[in-house]
Amino acid sequence: MLDNLHNVNIAIVAAPLLGAIIAGLFGGAIGRAGAHTVTIIGVAIAFLLSLVMFNHVVIQDAGIVSHSVYTWLVSDGITFEVGFLVDKLSVMMMVVVTFVSLMVHVYTIGYMAHDEENWPEGSGAGKNSYQRFFSYISLFTFSMLMLVMANNFMQLFFGWEAVGLVSYLLIGFWLKRSSATYANLKAFLVNRVGDFGFLLGIAAVLMYFNTLDYAAVFNAAELQKDLVISLWPGTEWSVMTVICILLFVGAMGKSAQVPLHVWLPDSMEGPTPISALIHAATMVTAGIFMVARMSPLFELSETALSFILIIGAITALFMGFLGIIQNDIKRVVAYSTLSQLGYMTVALGASAYAAGVFHLMTHAFFKALLFLAAGSVIIAMHHEQDMRRMGGLRKYMPITWITSLIGSLALIGTPGFAGFFSKDLIIEAVHASQLPGAGFAYFCVLAGVFVTAFYSFRMYFLVFHGKERFRDAHHGHDAHGHHAVHEPHETPWVVTLPLIALAIPSVLAGGMYITDMGFGNFFGSAIQVLPQHDVLGQLAQDYHGPWGMVLHGFLTAPFWLALAGVVTAWLLYMKYTHVPALIQARLQFLHTLLEQKYYADRFNDWFFAGGSRGIGRLLWQWGDVRLIDGLLVNGSARTVGWLAAVVRHVQSGYLFHYAFAMILGLLLMFALFVIAG
Amino acid sequence: MNFVMPDFMPALPEMFLLGMVCFILLLDLFLSERSRVVTYLLAQSTLLGALLLTVSLYEEGRALTFSDTFVHDPMGSVLKVFIYLATFLVFLYAKDYLRARNMFKGEFYVLGLFGVLGMNVLVSAHSLLTIYLGLELLSLSMYAMVALQRDSVQASEAAMKYFVLGAMASAMLLYGMSMLYGITGSLDLGQINTSTAAMDNNSMLLAFALVFIVIGVAFKLGAVPFHMWLPDVYHGAPTAVTLYLSSAPKLAAFAMMMRLLVDGLGGLQEQWEGMLILLTVLSLAAGNIIAIAQTNLKRMLAYSAISHVGFLLLGVLSGTQAGYAAAMFYAIVYVIMGLGGFGMIVLMSRAGFEADSIEDFKGLNERSPWFALMMLILMFSMAGVPPFLGFWSKLAVIQAALGADLVWLVAVAVVFSVIGAFYYLRVVKVMYFDKADVGAPTVSAGFDLRVVLSANSLAVLGLGLFPGSLLALCVAALA
Amino acid sequence: MTFEQILFYAFAAILVFAAGMVITVRNAVHAALFMVLAFFTSAALWLLLEAEFLAITLVLVYVGAVMVLFLFVVMMLDLNTAPMREGFARYLPVGIVVALLVIAVMAMAVGQRHFGLEQMPVPVPHGADYSNTRELGLLLYTTYVYPFEIAAVILLVAIVAAIALTLRQRGGTKTQNIAEQVAVRRDDRVRLVQMDAEQRK
């Protein structure tokens, strides 16, 4: 039985990989239909087998499955291996990842159907781009599964970098667009910062625990908690704090927390399916998952938890603000993702790991739904993304409309919808937390509710209701071609089916699992919380089932804040549509601030890019050109080259020289070993 | 005098080889030019047959026969198997090359197989006599093979140099052996070991004999300063022959070193360790540095072979079982990579054209991305970049040397391998970033060559991902 | 000093002298002849060592066959040795120093101490009926049969190599085929052509 499960685990990761390889390497041979069939089958197998594992681990509660598959090398007693750990935390992630991925795969058939239009005429990269896209998203699924199923830090890091790589490839998928290549480079570089911290964190783990295996590290963590390290002379740091903060720096990069968030909005340059899959539902939550996975470590450092709490709170609120002024439909969703990731991070900081992961799950569903719906709108609008040129799409695209509404309601936390349960849980957990910074965080998440509701419904109203502005817009730049306005119409079933399939868990997943995941012991030993941090345990005492929570929900501040947000949005964008412009004019300063994204990019450009360029120039001038090049490299290169040229002449081609060299060698050895020895 | 019939079983592969070579030699006389391929096929099947025999005898365990002049042991069997495999690949790679140059003659195969026989004798030698005879059999075949392209002045010159220097090295080795015989009164390696181990370790005479023995080995391996023949011979010989020289004989040379220094003079480890350290440092330094100045790929690979010998010696001189296993692993890995490297030159060459200049690989990526990738794998592996096979072999010998507390030597080895990375990566740079010249060679080789060469390169990657089994084989062979 | 010792030193002196002359005389034929002398004297030394078979083989094979062949070759080729001696004087000092060094080390290592009569006592002389040819044969075909066979293979390789490197049918060489010449008919060589006479202008 257990052996079978081991094989199931291997099959889960192997199936998408195989699909990716076939579609990627033989894309030309198997054609478009072949590519999407083979990858969808691969991911479907992974999904079904994940359900098998879910059944085993969760429904039958038959214990965790942990095994090692392949030992890469053993060095100094440290084993580097590939191994799988399937417990309730990872199996939940597996199901979510494979399900969303499967939906995205299906959806992509529709979204990328006319991908050749996205490439310049005769572009070599445009050839087989459809197949390549499927190969990438399957490869992503493989990488993400490797990440969540890892039982050791090495494999975690492999998955971590692999998803980063695929994300890089996909953001820049339309590599003929300079904005896309800029965005993927940006994502790559920003993630480098995070990954550097992450790698240092893993190195620190290796240094103090001498193993990379999760179980061994977690077991030993308790013993190491009083260790201190002197990072620079005169200071003492708790080793746990250092490790946790370093690991969290990795999470900040991957999960786009302030100040490493700047890459995520730009990543919207990639095709929409991957925005849904990678930059909303799965990859960006890897940081959240990782922190939850490392809960036995993070629990030992309150400093790190406070740090997480504050970073998360800032992200949750201030990224929400930015969503308000965006006009690009995808960017609104992107900022909302940033803000929601902030919520999850806050939950982690408050030691409510279960709540964070729970929100991760519900968020995966409704955010993927929102993205795919946005994509559906974009398809219908012929790749127009500006919301100011939309409006009134409700009657043309009924399915997209209704599913978007469901997604938005879930996002703002309408009682009963999935988002409500997870978000409320987080807010309550933060409220109950005693950690330094919890008060600030509570304010942020509460205010965030209003902001979320406002920008969500601003988008909803702008797109689906009101005046059909696309008619004016079309006249603007399409005056010559067709005189008739392209009326948007509902997208094909491959697009709408995933919308419907995602809408269902967006409504139901919250109520179904709140009891188990939020308050119950769903995750078992996968997540460990110290008793003094156990905020969810405290909340559980007042919990009386999902219905009770819904009913209570109508009485709490978050509900009223959300309602206020929706109403404000309605007033400003449906009723008094001239007001936003007035506000903008009055609060020009604020608007500019938001427009410039708090000058984060400017700052980064000036400080990091400019700074590193400056340092680079300095090092180049002094270090490289003079010291290294002049003295060492060119010096040594010159020395080596000179030596090579000289010694080369020993190889004169004359036989007697060679023979003489042998005799000299003989003499040398005589001198060293016979006479002296 | 009572004479006991020796046990022929352990030497079955050698006897089979000899019988088949003689048969091929005779048969080849009666074959027309067009049916020469029969010779080729027979030579290949001879190798496979010998391979089967050796494998079937593997389990037999250590045995001495022919009055203790022949030893059968796991190390020998493993090395023989790789010798057959390497030669098999050489014959396969060389076929089209030889055809295009009117060298597709029975002599190439007959001499090649005689060389294999010589290697086998060397690998299984348990007496100074058999070591010397095996060495001569191998060397003589190789001298003749180098000269086989009679119209080539370069090849004739190379053969001449090789022959004269080889004779000199043989003379030195023989002198050392005669000293050893004089000291111990025996030719048998086992007896030499027991009597030298019992002697005063600091005896000047032993050191004197040892110097000559080590020089003989060093010449065969191509360790500095006894390497001078190597670049000229590798460069001058037809590439098909270079392919042969650079592969299996390295394994035989390794075996010769193991037999002489470990089986025969294991008791003098302290003394020969110092000599090998000298050779190691010089080989690493000279091999890596001079390779940088080369523009000819064959010469570059020749110097790279010299530097690899430095690493090989690093494993042996650590004087432990682990070190010997690591060195054996290194030798096998080097042979696999070397076959690929010289195989690429054969692949790119065509009638009347030798693609042996680094320039010829300019922009290969545009013309043949697949083989550019294969070459990239090989170059990375030779440079010791993980996860390719070459990395693991370097790691293994370095670990062995660290185990012997030779930290400074390891540091030297690492520094020089970093310097060495330069010229490997230059090939990669040339392939991927330079524009091809007009009329640059394209890959037009036969299907079998392309497939097997690809498999060869991919094996470097594949075995690099799963290095355990090959290393375990080497460890088991020396246990 | 016994008679044997006198013989030994005499032959040894001639051997060293002859060997020196081989590499120093200008005339190649003389050098070859000195080599013959060196072979003879070393054969004589072997006889002193009771290695009669080897001594006779040396004379028969090396002097009788190898050197004669060698002389043939030397005489047939017009060797101009002057250019080969150009660097001789230049390299001579270095060569002498190196040679002296090597000899010095050899003398230090290999001397009375290790190979003196205490370490290597004189073997008991065999009687007149002792045939070392027979003993050699017995050893070669029993104890040393394996090395002996390999030596045979080496010779075979040498033959193969020698033939492979020298025997060739080069295209474009002018050779006579007597049979073809004899069998030739008039029609093969002469063609009669009917032509109109040229008009005189």
Radius of gyration of chain A, Cα only, in angstroms? 28 Å
- Overall 3D geometry of chain A? globular
Question: DSSP helix count of chain A?
Answer: 27
Task: Tally the helices of chain B.
Answer: 20
Q: Name the helicity range of chain B.
A: over 70%
On the 0-100 scale, what is the average pLDDT of chain B?
Answer: 91
Number of strands of chain A: 4
Structural class of chain B: mainly alpha
Strand order of the largest sheet of chain B: 1-2
What is the succession of H and E elements of chain B?
HHEEHHHHHHHHHHHHHHHHHH
Structural class of chain A: mainly alpha
Strand content of chain A: under 5%
Outline the biggest β-sheet of chain B: 2 strands, antiparallel
Report the mean per-residue pLDDT of chain A as an integer: 83
Radius of gyration of chain B: 21 Å
Unreliable stretches of chain A (pLDDT < 50, length at least 5) are: 475-483
Main β-sheet description of chain A: 2 strands, antiparallel
Account of the protein in words:
- The complex is a heterotrimer of chains A (677), B (479) and C (201).
- By secondary structure, chain A is mainly alpha-helical.
- Chain A has helices spanning 2-25, 27-59, 88-111, 129-149, 153-171, 178-209, 214-224, 239-254, 263-266, 272-281, 286-293, 295-298, 302-325, 329-349, 353-380, 398-412, 418-432, 438-464, 470-477, 493-519, 535-540, 545-553, 557-575, 579-586, 588-595, 600-650, 655-675, and strands at residues 65-75, 78-86, 228-229, 237-238.
- Chain A starts with a helix and ends with a helix.
- With 479 residues, chain B is an all-alpha fold.
- Helix content of chain B is 75%, strand content 1%.
- In chain B, strands 1-2 form a two-stranded antiparallel sheet.
- In chain B, helix 3 runs antiparallel to helix 11.
- Chain C is an all-alpha fold and 201 residues long.
- Chain C is elongated and about 110 Å long.
- Chains in contact: A-B, A-C, B-C.
- Chain A binds chain B through residues 71-73, 640-641, 643-645, 647-648, 650-651, 653, 655, 657-659, 661-662, 664-666, 668-670, 672-674, 677, and chain B through 160-161, 164-165, 168-169, 172, 202, 204, 207-208, 210-212, 214-215, 218-219, 225-226, 228-229, 231-232, 271, 274-275, 278, 286, 289-293, 419, 465, 467-468.
